[in-house]
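URGENT: need a sanity check before tomorrow's submission.

F., can you look over the NAD(P) transhydrogenase subunit alpha part 1 record below? I want to be sure the sequence and structure line up before it goes out.
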Amino acid sequence: VKVAVPRETRPGERRVALAPAALRQFEKLGVELLMQKGAGLESGFDDADYKGVTLVDSEEELLGQADVVLKVQPPTEKEVGMMREGTVVMGYMTPHEGDSRIKELCKRKITSLSMELVPRISRAQSIDALSSQGAISGYKAVLIAAERSPRFFPMLTTAAGTIRPSKVLVIGAGVAGLQAIATARRLGAQVNAYDVRSATAEQVESLGAKFVDTGVKAEGEGGYARELTAEEKKKQAEVLADYIAASHAVITTAAIPGRPAPKIIDKATVERMGRGAVIVDLAAETGGNCELTQAGKDVDHNGVLIVGPKNVPSSVAIHASEMYSRNLYNLLTLLIKDGELHLNWDDQVIADSCLTHGGEVKHGPTRERLE
Ligand code: NAD
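Structure tokens as predicted:
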């Protein structure tokens, strides 16, 4: 089985779908690895780091012989055009957008497995890229906040006086939020955190943060949150406003699957924050948790800085690529039997992850949208 890794082409994407640290595992699977020359450079890996991998100059030549293609960003129409019928491609497929790209996958009868669609069941944890990359975002968001803040995060006792620790608030305590809490605690900040799922209270407290109870509980399906009613939103906003106003840094991570990000911080609340306060909005790309957030930009509102970073995992390219490669490897193990490619549709992980196969869109909501 030939497994090919092209260079990522989307501007700003520094990750690669195969990191040298995962090579041994792939080799044990008995697959033949091929990579486009220089594919790892942006991530910090030289071609020489890929021992045993066949390096190919042209993307066309690479994709034209692949049985399996490993990607980070969705394959472009041009890339899909270079693949043979029946090729399996794995990576982010952004099933909610890029209709012409999805149609091209169908037209070319490509089997696409979407990392966004991997079911969140225990057996699939090692395949779950939303989790591996979400944890990276949570970590990095705190570093961004600390770097942009005009304050120390830790308490410091010095000859020039004692500095009080920064107050950090984390909104949304899922995978990214919990990592943000842990990182802010390691930097010595005093951390408060909030989530609508009450199960998170214990997790927040086990990390040494204080859980903010707004009295609003909104457990949805499959361990996710549901959207709040107008009344719940108002109640939540009232309690949170005082915490937000008193914080030196706020990290927001709140999301609801398949919906735009919930708006949690309005302009009036930002105006209650002190000069020098920083908001890092990890939901920027899906509309933002703060009303003033602009994706990919810094907004200064009366001395409060609102940062809306895009593609945060890409900025931790080495480790993000390592973790992502392992997610892909673990998915690939489900497709290889006795050295041959074999798609077992009775396996929930394969069936749920599949976006397109044999000329059809397999993912229900995407199929309905395209019809
Ligand atoms: P997510 O990125 O969809 O959302 C982030 C957080 O925002 C969630 O914790 C959610 O409850 C919270 N949120 C939504 N609306 C909010 C609001 N109005 N105010 C405050 N917070 C709000 O979620 P995620 O981090 O990807 O994962 C969420 C859940 O899935 C967790 O329970 C996690 O344990 C579970 N999970 C399971 C697996 C697995 O078993 N394979 C893998 C990953 C995650």
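My own read: The first helix runs from residue 23 to 28. The radius of gyration is 22 Å. If you see anything odd, call me.
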